[in-house]
Amino acid sequence: MEHFCPKCNNIVLTRCVAPIYGACEISIYKPPIKLRPSQNQYDKAIPFVCSNCGYLEWYVDNPENFK
After folding, report:
1. Which residues pair with 14 in a beta bridge?
2. Nearest CA to 49 among 22, 19, 21, 12?
3. Could you tell me which of 8, 12, 28, 39 has the fewest CB atoms within 10 Å of its CB?
4. CA distance 63 to 43
């Protein structure tokens, strides 16, 4: 799915990676967090950046996981 910069209008945001402390992904969880990982609703967060102005937004690949 393409995402567009809200500041530059129709400039397509570029998908990026944000390694933090050696990890290559950030997971987003829907509260409440349960003790069994298989019962949690979550997805990895992916940064997208505008190559024109530097605007940054994070998206998940599967937003339906948060319904």
Report:
1. 49
2. 12
3. 39
4. 8
Beta bridge mates, 67: none
Q: Which of 36, 47, 45 is nearest to 66 (CA)?
A: 45
pLDDT digits (tens, 9 = 90+) for 28-40: 778 787 777 777 7
- What is the spatial distance between Cα 11 and Cα 35, in angstroms, rounded to a whole number? 42
Residue 41 contacts residue 34 (beta carbons within 8 Å)? no
E strands within 1-67?
Answer: 14-15, 26-30, 41-49, 56-60
Nearest to 44 by CA among 34, 59, 66, 54: 59
